[in-house]
Hints:
Blueprint: E1 2-6, H1 10-21, E2 25-29, H2 33-40, H3 51-60, E3 64-67, H4 70-74, E4 79-82, H5 97-109, E5 114-118, H6 126-141, E6 147-151, H7 161-166, E7 171-174, H8 178-188, E8 198-201, H9 203-234, H10 238-246, H11 267-280, H12 286-298, H13 301-310, E9 319-323, H14 338-348, E10 352-356, H15 361-368, E11 373-374, H16 378-382, E12 387-390, H17 402-408, E13 413-416, H18 423-428, E14 432-434, H19 442-452, H20 458-461, H21 468-485
Parallel strand pairs: 1-2, 1-4, 2-3, 4-5, 5-6, 7-8, 9-10, 9-12, 10-11, 12-13, 13-14
Helix pairs in contact: 1-3, 5-6, 9-11, 9-12, 11-12, 19-21
Amino acid sequence: MNITIVGTGYVGLVSGACFADIGLNVTCGDVDAEKLARLEEGIMPSYEPGLDVLVDRNVKANRLHFSTDLTSVLNGTTVLFIAVGTPMSVDGSADLHYVLEVAKSIGEHLDHYCLIVTKSTVPVGTSNLVREAIQRELDNRGVDVPFDIASNPEFLKEGAAIKDFMTPDRVVVGVDSEKAKELLSKIYRPFLLNNFRVIFMDIISAELTKYAANAMLATRISFMNDIANLCDKVGADINNIRKGIGSDARIGQKFLYAGCGYGGSCFPKDVKALIKTGKQYDSEMTVLESVESVNEAQKMVMFHKLQSRLGADAMQGKRVAIWGLSFKPNTDDMREAPSLVVIDALLKSGCRVRVYDPIAMSEAKKILGDSVEYGKDIYDTVNNADALLLLTEWQEFRLPNWEIVGKVIHQKIVIDGRNIYEPSELKLFGFDYEGIGVRLCLTCSRALYKLRHPSVSSASLMLKPISILQVLRVSSLLSSRDSNST
C-alpha cells in the first residue's frame, strides 16, 4: 500500500518513518525543498531520540521518500495523511491555513479514490471543512471522484515519539464509512498485534478526543501546582501528598508532579484552542481557563522565590545560573518553555544569566541571542553564580557533585523547579535549597546536624526521637557524600 504524508514536521516525519519501518511505501511531502534535501542526507529538523537512525534506515531501504510535488505524489496513493502545522493564532484559535491549503490542492489534482486523514491537531469540525474544500475543487473541475475523510489524532510524547508510535496504548480513529475503517485497520494492525487497540468513533468525537486528552493532563499539572503553592504556605510537602492521592486507583500516579509550569507545542496551544472552541459554541470552559491561568502564574514562581531570597532591590547585577532550557527532557523544543519566562524576568530585573542545556543550546541561541551567557557544562555554568535555578529535569542534572558546585558557586542558593533533589542532602552540603511545595523534615534536619557535629548535645538541639529508617536514610546520604568525594 502506498501512503502519503503531507508535512515533515515533528508528527509527519515520525509517522512517515514508522509507517515505512513496517514495510509500507511512504512519501513525505513538503513545500520546503531545502528541508527535504537535508532529510535525505540524514539531517533532522529537530531532536528526537532515534529518529535519525529510523529515517536513514528506511531511506536506504527505498521505503521512505521525500517530494515537493503533491501532484505526482497523489498518483497511486491510497491513504493521505495531512500532518501540517496548526499554529496558534493571536486569539488562541488553531490556524487552519495550511490544512485547508493542502485540502484545496488535493481537490485540484485528485483523480482516483483516496482516503484523506487529518493527523494534525485540529479543532472540532475541521474534517468537514477539509471535505468541503476538496469537494469544491472537484466541482470546479467538473469531475466526480470518490474520497473519504477520517480523523486520526496523534498522541506522541516528545522524547519518546518512536516508542509511542510503534507500541501505542491506543489509536483513536474517527471515520464515517466502512471503507475508511477497513483501510486504517489494515495500516495499524502491525503495530497492535499483541493487543489490537484501535478505538473507532465518529469524526467529531475523534477531533475532540485529542484536545480533551491534553487538556486533562494539563489540568492535573496545574492542580498539583496549585496544591504545591499551598504547601509552601502551610508547611506541607507536595511529595507526600502526591503519594497519598496517587495511591488511589481512581487517580493514579501519572502527571501528579508539581513544578514550574508546563510548556511545549501541545498543552499550551491545545488548552487555548479548546477554550476558544468553547466560546465559539457558547460553552464556557471555566476549568480550562483556570488551568491556563495557574500555569502562566506558575512560570513566574521560580523568579519570585529567588527574588524573595536576594531581595527585590538587590537583583541588579546578580549572576544567576540556569540548568535546563527545553520545556522537558529529551527534546530541544523551547516553545512555551518556562525557561523563557524566567529568563525574561531575570534580565528585566538586571540579572546576568548563564544557561546550560544538554541538547537545546543551539535552539536557545536562536531565541535568546547574546542576552545570556552560555555555559560549557553544569559546573562551568554555576561558576561564581549567586544562585542556581533547575528548570528541566535532564538526566545529567540528577546527581551532580555538590562538593564541586559548592566550591565554584558564589552563593549557595539552589531553587529546584522540578523537585528532583533531596532537600536534606543539599542542606548537608550547606546549600540554601527550595523546591516547589517541598520541605525538609525538621527531625531529619536535626539528625543530619547531630551526625555532622557529634559533640553537640541532643538536648541543645531539642532533638526529637527519630525512626531507624530516618537514621539509615541520613547515613546513606553521608555515605554517598563520602563516596563522591573519593
